[in-house]
Amino acid sequence: MARYTGPSVRISRRFGEPVMGDSKVLAKKNYPAGQHGRNKKRKQSEYATQLNEKQKAKYTYGVLERQFAKTFHEASKKEGITGENLLKLLESRLDNTVYRMGIAPTRRAARQLVLHKHIVVNGSVVNIPSFQLKPGDVLGVREKSKSLESITDSLSTHSAKKFTWLEWDNAQLSGKFVTYPQRSEIPENIEVQLIVELYSK
């Protein structure tokens, strides 16, 4: 599956937020790259604002256009508020949950761990980053991979305890996806209503 492989700092500077992870550069240059980056303060159209929000969500969760549209379609068919359903589906992706549990320092790193078969779900190796977890699913680090330096380093600095919809056992290096998170619990700064309005046109 293709994915964005360009410079992450450039994307973060475009939105003025660390959408692809924290960066020291963003603290110094919180404006788009390019010679006109500092001056890009012109008023945006309604469509541009909505599109911008969708692009931010795509880059945040590492999803490309076709997959994002498919996820939105699934969210629209579920009961409840479409925008909140969309975030719940994005949050329940395997690569995102690996990141939230602290097994990887970034979503990009989490995706790589999944692709390289370091993660198990309910006892079986799963190497599909977009795999949708369901409440009650147990995921963890594969036995052969528990001594990986990148995993141990990440777990020493990141914690899943701050997310109420996840449980983590540091001794077993495994965790549980307890339930879908509520919108108020998701820390990402994404105006989902703008995305819904864009797709409803």
Give the gist of this structure.
It is built from 9 helices and 5 strands. The protein has 201 residues and is of the alpha+beta class.
Topology readout:
Layout: H1 8-15, H2 24-28, H3 46-61, H4 65-77, H5 82-91, H6 94-100, H7 107-115, E1 119-121, E2 124-125, E3 138-141, H8 149-157, E4 166-169, E5 174-177, H9 192-199
Antiparallel strand pairs: 1-2, 1-3, 3-5, 4-5
Q: In this structure, how is the largest beta sheet organized? A: 5 strands, antiparallel
The CATH superfamily of the largest domain bears the name: RNA-binding S4 domain
How much helix is in the residues? Answer: 40-55%
Please tell me how large the radius of gyration is. 18 Å
Quick one: overall form? globular
| Count of individual domains | 2
Describe the structure.
The protein is α+β, with helices and mostly antiparallel strands. It has two domains: 8-89, Ribosomal Protein S4 Delta 41, Chain A, domain 1, CATH 1.10.1050.10; 93-179, Structural Genomics Hypothetical 15.5 Kd Protein In mrcA-pckA Intergenic Region, Chain A (Roll). The chain is built from nine helices and five strands, in the order H-H-H-H-H-H-H-E-E-E-H-E-E-H. A five-stranded antiparallel sheet has the order 2-1-3-5-4, covered by helices on one side. Strand 4 and strand 5 form a beta hairpin. Helix 3 (46-61) packs across helix 9 (192-199) and helix 6 (94-100) packs across helix 7 (107-115).
